[in-house]
């Protein structure tokens, strides 16, 4: 039998080395055991040598009868040569063939004499030449000897096994530790079979990633989880920090520390806080439904509450984060929150953005604003990745050529020169350029018509994405201090979402690079306002869910890949942080994973994902946690956490804290979830639904009303009656045509009395749907149009005719004293003209979380709110100052009020940092809006201008012009506006973020302009109100 085969048959099961030994060195007791083993090995070797001599003597006696002494001697030498090719027994036992790692083991080999062990090798060629004939003659003898040796070897092996078992029992009695002979034998065996094991592990589909921990080991035993867990802690040791360096803790303490969970290991129950001051790359992974999106919400909550000096942008690919503005309502989690010492709380600073193109089809209560981006922000490479076009194909070159021409100008096929639009162009401009440029459409040097048509069709389809606009959304509206921005991309395809996120990451990184330069701060005053909107942003945290669709591994690239890789690599110094989550860690680009410094691992089920996580974890992972069975059985809400900070000794298991805000990312259940309503509630709901449909379509068959009531009864297990619903509709202003069995709206409405002129401060008036309909109905009633669309030219009915206007003008002219002394004027001309007044119809989301409809009027010349009282027209005071202010400056002015304020008071009320408050106050001081006072060495700030503005857009006086009579006009003269409709919309968004403008129309305010001429030829114009007859200042 071959020596190696004998060795494999005799080896015992392997028990791996203890991780403690590999980390902290060998134990002295083990070393003493090894010395005892060497002595025992020598003793056993002597016994084996004696047995070998006895066997040889027996062999010589048996063979002497059949062979000569010379042949027998040569035959024994050949056996010796073959055996010497195998490792020496002494070297094998003492590990001399590997001097760097001495291994001691008991190995059973074929018996050999001392002479054979010490005999040197002979040259095989010479030996075969001398003994070729003798070997040929004694083949049968050799076979017989092998059989004898085999039988003897079996007997000897049996004896040695018995001796080893007895020795092992004795060792166990002496010490409770693992037998040293067994350990040494396992080490030798492990080294000899390492290559075979590696191959087996590669082929295995469910290998054990931990090599030294039994499956039934207890998590809580100190002997299993090594090394001990050490974290940076607060002074009383109740909180452990991850991601925060000791130098940062010494300087800032627990400021902006994000409470995200507790350590879930025995004897180490501490709260865990993540650093929220410095930039981080946080990686969250786990299988579907294990809590990835939940953790993103926890981090976003903590940042919103603990660090108000940063901006947060959450990319929401599944449309669930909008619910964070509401408190947690889940019954199970409410009890858990109490146990954790937390309370349900919604985030008031949350602002949800949806694509501009899907605004009409989205429920109003689920978003706050829309976002869009300029096509000029996209490079040709971005377009190619989004459209799936090869960058250097003919179509890709056509795209590059078109973008260049639209920016710099081109000549049409008719020879007309089109000036370049720079960065202010739309998709229609690109299409127009491709279809009309002379070079692109040239037969000689242009592109094929098929290529042009294919590319224009792609740009046509891009219009339907709803994300492009010529103006775009400024970056400062998305990344803003003390604002949690949710960008809902659930409406978009993956390639379009990648485009949006890639452009956003690129803009944030570029803006923050500029902001961190000292020179940039000095240039801010000279920068254009458009540039400031793009670069003046705070340090930003970017949250990305389903990251594997944006940064895939391998050669696959998306429109977001390069931008996000650069964001992760270069974002540390500019203050750009990123938190990205995925179901497939193995599918994320390794360039991104190599930059992470905090990792949160939930349950994973695929070995490729588990290996990818362990490979990139930036700390030591205990052997117990390395088992694939451990990661595969992690409960929901628990995670393996590690970070790169030196103060953290190893990875640990953490229990995620419950959410304070509402989480809508839970799995939908297909079981029946029926909600019941009373018949009265169902009838009210049916009436509202029917009236809304009736208002848009102007009529409704009774069968349609019956269908609405039936559907609601089935949905809410109720018994609402059609008759009661019809009665409610009649009360709302509808009537029933019995002949046609159709419900119609009444065209005439009662005149609404004038609204009260006073309202208590802080009280928000209720302006419901019926009130709004009454206001709009009054104007239409007075024009005789009922509910028809408003005509193009509407004018407040003049009360002063031309003759009366002449009399008033003569009253206002300068006559001099006794007609002799002083200036004397003559009325040269008087004409009727009109001042455009903007009628703004809007929806307003109140503090009670309800939408209210309303309207108000703005003078297009002064930009002020316009009201009407018994004394005549009244304008607000100070609104015109707001048109040139930023949103943050307006917020500061609102909190400044009429009384003096210190900088600390403004910081507390606005949530702005001191540096930002001072910068905003300095800008307001430059506009003479704010003054700085110094009393007893304390600086205070005070308004220098009077502001008389309503606190709410629903103030009754704002819609008081609705009581004036209105008439149609086929043609009229008007004074040119000084404020545009777009400027009004932008201003309203700054003042009341919850206000959504539905429509702006123009109504004309008639005035007389009287021109007076003096004797010296100078002229003077006086404006007279054609409704009240009062003199006006324009």
Keywords:
alpha/beta; 30 strands; seven-stranded mixed sheet; about 1050 residues; 14-stranded mixed sheet; Rossmann fold
3D architecture notes:
It is a single chain. The strands form six sheets. A 14-stranded mixed sheet has the order 1-2-4-3-16-15-14-5-13-12-6-11-7-8. The relative contact order is 0.07. The protein is 40% helix and 17% strand. It has six domains: 201 residues, no CATH class; 329 residues, 3-Layer(aba) Sandwich (Rossmann fold); 89 residues, no CATH class; 67 residues, Winged helix-like DNA-binding domain superfamily/Winged helix DNA-binding domain (Arc Repressor Mutant, subunit A); 208 residues, no CATH class; 71 residues, Orthogonal Bundle (Arc Repressor Mutant, subunit A). The N terminus is likely disordered. The protein is α/β, with parallel strands linked by helices and 1034 residues long. A hairpin with a 5-residue loop joins strand 9 and strand 10. The termini are far apart. Helix 15 packs across helix 16.
pLDDT averaged residue by residue: 76
Main beta-sheet strand count, sense and barrel state: 14 strands, mixed
Strand content: 15-25%
The helix content is 40-55%
Shape: elongated
Count all strands and give the number: 30
Strand order of the largest sheet: 1-2-4-3-16-15-14-5-13-12-6-11-7-8
CATH topology of the largest domain, anyone?
Answer: Rossmann fold
């Amino acid at each position: 039998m071959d020596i190696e085969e004998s060795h494999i048959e005799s080896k015992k099961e392997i028990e791996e080395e203890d991780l403690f030994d590999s980390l902290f060195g060998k134990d002295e007791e083990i070393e003493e055991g090894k010395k005892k083993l060497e002595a025992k090995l020598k003793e056993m070797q002597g016994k084996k040598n004696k047995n070998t001599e006895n066997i040889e003597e027996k062999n010589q006696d048996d063979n002497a009868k059949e062979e000569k002494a010379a042949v027998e001697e040569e035959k024994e030498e050949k056996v010796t040569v073959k055996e010497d090719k195998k490792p020496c027994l002494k070297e094998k036992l003492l590990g001399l063939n590997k001097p760097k790692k001495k291994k001691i083991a008991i190995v059973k080999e074929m018996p050999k004499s001392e002479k054979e062990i010490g005999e040197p090798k002979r040259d095989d060629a010479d030996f075969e030449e001398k003994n070729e004939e003798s070997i040929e003659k004694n083949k049968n003898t050799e076979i017989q000897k092998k059989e004898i040796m085999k039988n003897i070897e079996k007997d000897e092996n049996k004896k040695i096994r018995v001796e080893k078992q007895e020795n092992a029992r004795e060792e166990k009695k002496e010490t409770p530790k693992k037998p040293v002979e067994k350990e040494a034998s396992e080490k030798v065996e492990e080294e000899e079979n390492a290559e075979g094991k590696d191959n087996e592990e590669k082929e295995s589909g469910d290998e054990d990633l931990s090599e030294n921990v039994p499956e039934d080991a207890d998590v809580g035993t100190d002997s299993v989880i090594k090394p001990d867990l050490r974290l940076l802690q607060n002074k009383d040791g109740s909180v452990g920090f991850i991601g925060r360096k000791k130098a940062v803790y010494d300087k800032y303490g627990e400021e902006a520390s994000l409470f995200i969970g507790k350590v879930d290991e025995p004897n180490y129950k501490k709260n865990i806080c993540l650093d929220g001051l410095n930039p981080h790359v946080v990686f969250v992974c786990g299988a579907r439904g294990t809590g990835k999106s939940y953790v993103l919400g926890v981090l976003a909550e903590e940042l919103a509450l603990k660090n108000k000096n940063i901006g947060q942008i959450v990319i929401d690919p599944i449309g669930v984060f909008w619910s964070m503005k509401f408190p947690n309502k889940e019954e199970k989690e409410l009890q858990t929150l109490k146990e954790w010492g937390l309370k349900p709380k919604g985030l008031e600073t949350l602002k949800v953005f949806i694509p501009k193109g899907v605004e009409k089809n989205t429920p109003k209560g689920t978003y706050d604003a829309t976002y869009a981006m300029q096509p000029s922000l996209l490079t040709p490479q971005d377009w190619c990745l989004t459209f799936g076009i090869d960058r250097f194909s003919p179509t890709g070159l056509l795209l590059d050529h078109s973008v260049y021409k639209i920016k710099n100008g081109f000549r049409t096929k008719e020879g007309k020169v089109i000036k370049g639009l720079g960065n202010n162009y739309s998709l229609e401009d690109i299409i127009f350029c491709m279809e009309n440029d002379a070079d692109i459409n040239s037969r000689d040097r242009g592109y094929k018509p098929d290529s042009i048509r294919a590319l224009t069709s792609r740009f046509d389809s891009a219009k339907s994405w709803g994300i492009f606009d010529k103006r775009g959304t400024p970056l400062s509206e998305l990344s803003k201090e003390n604002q949690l921005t949710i960008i809902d991309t659930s409406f978009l395809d993956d390639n379009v979402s990648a485009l949006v996120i890639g452009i956003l990451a690129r803009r944030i990184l570029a803006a923050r690079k500029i902001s961190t330069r000292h020179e940039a701060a000095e240039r801010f005053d000279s920068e254009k306002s458009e540039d400031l909107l793009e670069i003046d942003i705070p340090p930003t945290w970017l949250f990305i869910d389903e990251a594997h669709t944006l940064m895939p591994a391998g050669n696959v690239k998306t429109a977001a890949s390069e931008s996000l890789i650069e964001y992760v690599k270069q974002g540390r110094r500019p203050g750009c942080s990123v938190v990205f989550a995925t179901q497939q860690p193995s599918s994320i680009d390794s360039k991104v994973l190599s930059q992470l410094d905090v990792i949160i691992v939930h349950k994973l089920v695929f070995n490729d994902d588990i290996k990818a996580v362990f490979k990139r974890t930036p700390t030591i992972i205990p052997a117990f946690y390395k088992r694939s069975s451990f990661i595969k059985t992690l409960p929901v809400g628990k995670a393996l956490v590690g970070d790169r900070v030196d103060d953290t000794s190893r990875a640990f298991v953490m229990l995620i804290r419950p959410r304070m805000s509402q989480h809508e990312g839970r799995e939908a259940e297909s079981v029946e979830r029926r909600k019941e309503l009373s018949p009265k509630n169902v009838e009210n709901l049916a009436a509202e639904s029917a009236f809304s449909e009736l208002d848009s379509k102007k009529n409704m068959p009774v069968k349609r009303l019956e269908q609405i009531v039936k559907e609601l009864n089935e949905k809410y297990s109720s018994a609402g009656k059609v008759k009661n619903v019809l009665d409610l509709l009649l009360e709302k202003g509808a009537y029933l045509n019995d002949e046609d069995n159709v419900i119609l709206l009444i065209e005439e409405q009662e005149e609404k009395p004038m609204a009260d002129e006073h309202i208590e401060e802080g009280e928000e008036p209720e302006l419901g749907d019926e009130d709004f309909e009454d206001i709009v109905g009054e104007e239409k009633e007075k024009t005789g149009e009922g509910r028809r669309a408003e005509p193009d030219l509407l004018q407040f009915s003049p009360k002063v005719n031309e003759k009366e206007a002449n009399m008033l003008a003569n009253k206002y002219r300068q006559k001099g004293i006794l007609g002799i002394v002083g200036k004397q004027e003559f009325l040269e001309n008087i004409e009727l003209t009109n001042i455009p007044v903007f009628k703004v119809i809007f929806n307003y989301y109140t503090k009670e979380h309800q939408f209210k409809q309303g309207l108000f009027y703005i003078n297009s010349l002064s930009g002020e709110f316009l009201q009407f009282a018994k004394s005549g027209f009244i304008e607000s005071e100070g609104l015109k100052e707001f048109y040139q202010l930023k949103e943050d400056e307006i917020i500061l002015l609102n909190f400044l009020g009429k009384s003096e304020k210190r900088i600390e008071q403004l910081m507390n009320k606005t949530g702005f940092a001191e540096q930002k408050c001072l910068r905003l106050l300095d800008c307001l001081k430059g506009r003479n809006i704010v003054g700085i006072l110094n009393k007893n060495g304390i600086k205070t700030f005070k308004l220098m201008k009077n502001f008389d503005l309503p606190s709410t857009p629903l103030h009754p006086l704002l819609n008081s012009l609705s009581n004036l009579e209105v008439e149609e006009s086929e043609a009229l003269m008007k004074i040119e506006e000084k404020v545009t409709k777009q400027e009004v919309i932008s201003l309203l968004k700054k003042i009341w973020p919850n206000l959504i403008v539905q429509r702006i129309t123009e109504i004309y305010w008639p005035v007389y302009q009287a021109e007076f001429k003096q004797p010296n030829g100078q002229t003077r114009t006086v404006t007279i109100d054609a409704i009240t007859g009062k003199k006006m200042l324009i």
